[in-house]
Amino acid sequence: MTKIEKIVLSYSGGLDTSIILKWLQETYGCEVVTFTADLGQGEELEPARAKAEMSGVKDIRIVDLREEFVRDFVFPMLRANALYEGQYLLGSSIARPLIAKHLVGIAREVDADAVAHGATGKGNDQIRFELAVNALDPSIRVIAPWRQWTIRSRMQLLEYAEKHRILVPSDKRGEAPFSIDANLLHTSTEGKILENPAEVAPDHVYQRTVDPIDAPDAPEIITIGFERGDPISVNGKAVTPAALLTKLNGLGGRHGVGRLDLVENRFIGMKSRGIYETPGGTILLAAHRGIESITLDRAAAHLKDEIMPRYAELIYNGFWFAPEREMLQALIDHSQAFVSGEVTLRLYKGSASVISRASPCSLYSADLVTFEESAIAFDHHDAEGFIRLNGLRLRSLAARNGR
Ligand code: ARG
Prior knowledge:
Layout: E1 6-10, H1 15-28, E2 31-38, H2 46-54, E3 60-64, H3 66-79, H4 95-110, E4 114-116, H5 125-136, E5 141-143, H6 145-148, H7 154-163, E6 179-182, E7 187-190, E8 220-227, E9 230-234, E10 237-238, H8 241-254, E11 259-265, E12 271-277, H9 279-295, H10 298-317, H11 323-335, E13 341-348, E14 351-358, H12 366-369, H13 380-401
Parallel strand pairs: 1-2, 1-4, 2-3, 4-5
Antiparallel strand pairs: 6-7, 7-12, 8-9, 8-13, 9-10, 11-12, 13-14
């Protein structure tokens, strides 16, 4: 193997990546450039700069990716109503390809031969980072310290930190933190007591939503505007993608919307239990389904629903930059041409319910469906033949089977 001269590290400034920074500098004896993405994780990013500086990093990149994240990754995914295993809104999965894209971009700019990340050998995130790097630039090598070093547990990690005088962050209660991943779409929490799925998650794991029991007794009514499948306004006010999701996170969080306690199947092969909070995303999923319900043709809607699990699994497994995901995306995007209009929802004690929807492109016809007399020609006798022919084979089967 050729010697590595320069590495770009995906760096959060947290415990794991602080240790990785030190380890890379010692192990490879080369320059390490740090890249910290602002995805709206709600953490201050300047401490990350200070820590990197203290570790002797010369080239420190901190980039605000919030708009790109929501516009080019979250919204395209929401057009599909994507849910993994029926429930997970893919908040961590969808952030990884974006981080990888920028890691590769910086690596090319500074002429680095490798990128590094802090994902462990047991998780999905390593796969997502590395498949994305493979797809974008196969000449760039990937270093995954968690798979290379001799540290095998969080305990050993803490010992290494102590030995190298690296600051160990603790949670508000002075305990070692959970494994948390946060961005504008969600907060995910794993590890510690949550590793036993038979244990009820303690209240303090929740970060951005109130317990629905403690949510306001008065419901809140909100209206979301859509254009070609993407949300563009809240309560009549046009906002940018990141501002829109930020706003809905605040509203949803206050009403306890979007909590999920899930045992999921990781791509790498094991089951894991996590707590997810996706307030804005949960509102947007309900709203998007609401606007689609009046603007999409039945067959188009059903086809979307058929491919959705496949599309969600591709994102979960890290195949964002693969042709099959892009092909499905083209199909989904094509379906959204008339998905425009307004949806009104009620937020109340953990729920986000659609209570009305309207669109200039609506396919809904009150005149057609009405129980009252209607101007539209609909011959009730046609329904008789429709049922008779659909029932033809069922009558044949019943006759043969002697029912
Ligand atoms: N299990 C979720 C997923 O695979 C969340 C992973 C969160 N990552 C983390 N570093 N805690 O998408």
